[in-house]
Amino acid sequence: MIFSRKKVELMVAYTVLIVASLVFVFPVLSIVLDSFKPSRDIGSWESMWLFQPTFENYRSIFFDRQFLNFLKNSLIVSLSSTFLVLLVAVPAAYGFSRFKFKGRRDLLFWILSQKMLPPIAIIIPFFIIMRTVRLLDTYLALIVAYVALNLPFAVWILYGFFLAIPVEIDQAAEVDGASPLQILAKIILPLSVGGIITVATLCIIFSWNEFLFALILTGLETRTAPVVTTALVAPWGMGWGDGLACASVTIAPVILFAAILGKRFQKGLTFGAIK
Amino acid sequence: MLRKRGVVLSLVLPAVALLAAIGTFPLVFSFNLSFRTWMLTRPDVIPFVGLNNYSYLLRSTGDFWVPLTNTLYFTFGAVSLELILGFLLALALSKELKGKTIFRTCFIVPMAVTPAIVGLIWKFMLHDFGMVNYVFGRIGLGAQNWLGEISKAMLVVIMIDVWQWTPLVILVLSAGLESLPKEPLEAAEIDGASKLQVLRYITIPLLKPLILVALLIRAMEAMKIFDMLWVLTFGGSGTETLSIHIYRIGFRFLDMGMASALSYLLLVITVIMAIFFTRVLIKTAFVSE
């Protein structure tokens, strides 16, 4: 059989893509699979593929280690900070997109530059300030931190979204006598629900996944899921079974939402740099 | 006019004020702190030491130049691999295939996983009895100590970053490839250009802005790397980057002043890189218009 040039090309492309997909997905599947292995079988080559599935690890993390508590902490911090971010970012992005005022470009650039901050650069002052005002190991400390980290991103993306909505719509409403706030609330918002939901989901995901600030600013009361999960497999940790189960539970919602968002997730990660 | 001013201010001010308070203020605080010595063990003693922290760091191989080299090595290695592999996979994805959505969904998976947990996943896979050594044992190469040996650890870390973030490059470039105008490509093929020539002289130049955007995003993120590395090696075996070293100085050695100084150096380096790449980006964008 003679394969046409095009067919060969396609076959190569398929092979490459399939191999890549397997490489990207396999490690994640692997730990989810292994989280159902009894502790003694994890890490032993005889039971690599054949083992007796068990919920032992999950029982352990939820009943012995109160993992639900840490999940709750992650959720509280993620949702609160995202709510605050949206509360402030939506009006700001709207203002930037509609009014050309002096210093607009500079302000926008300043906001964008906040994104470039290595988190480690502000973690030191954050820690010291929180320690001084006795806010360590509180939800508020982390919420403030996550607002600082996510606000520039949210403003920038929402700015892009609002720019795409034609000004004529605002002008039509203004002619009808609506105030800017009314225009924002009754007309622009319903039009940009999709964008706002995307930004919200991304902020929640970023906060949920955050590690460094959570590591430093939380204590026994407010520890979040990622910190607990990784602590379990530190040299002083207590075992892979629990660790894998925690990991699976922690990443499951994110993967789910990322898959649901699909293209929007991809766009968000590239910071809307691509139109 | 006055009414408009008020409206704009009330819309934008909350965000700006909030950001100034919780974003810029800590930076200023940190700047001040970088000129002092503040040991957490003696919180009441905060002597002003001028440029001592900075001059010490700039002359210290162990506390600055080595972590800097590690960070740059990591950034350069990881980002170049991500760009190359990402481009190749984006090319593959641009062919007329079925099941593109499935591939894209698979590609999203590594990016969605918490970076710290990516560290955990690979720590598990690279374990003495983990999957990787299992495969190596099967193909006869024997188990290795991936994360413990200096010769291997950094390379392994780079590969893990490539695993997690190549999909980002793939998705960025694939969006670009899809939006390329078809005419120049078809015209070139009719004129007898080979696939490779089309690629080199038309596709890549047209994609340059996007490639630079991907480069910028990944390079900035790679410079900041912490979560994944911390979980994998705690900065041992020659993988200590600037972020990890700052953490060590501040939270293990407890010298907050020195840690602040080092984080400012990191900030300066990152900003210089960003300005450099953005300049190149703007120049390219104008040239290709």
Describe the structure.
The complex is a heterodimer of chains A (275) and B (289). Chain A has 275 residues and is an all-alpha fold. Helix content of chain A is 73%, strand content 0%. The model of chain A has no long low-confidence stretch (mean pLDDT 83). Chain B has 289 residues and is mostly helical. Helix content of chain B is 77%, strand content 0%. Chain B contains twelve helices and no strands. In chain B, helix 5 runs parallel beside helix 10 (227-233) and helix 7 (150-178) crosses helix 9 (195-223). Chain B is globular and about 75 Å long. Chains A and B meet through helix 1, helix 3, helix 4, helix 5 and helix 6 of A and helix 1, helix 3, helix 4, helix 5 and helix 6 of B.
Kindly list the characteristics that best describe this protein.
A: 275 residues; mainly alpha; 13 helices; globular; B: 289 residues
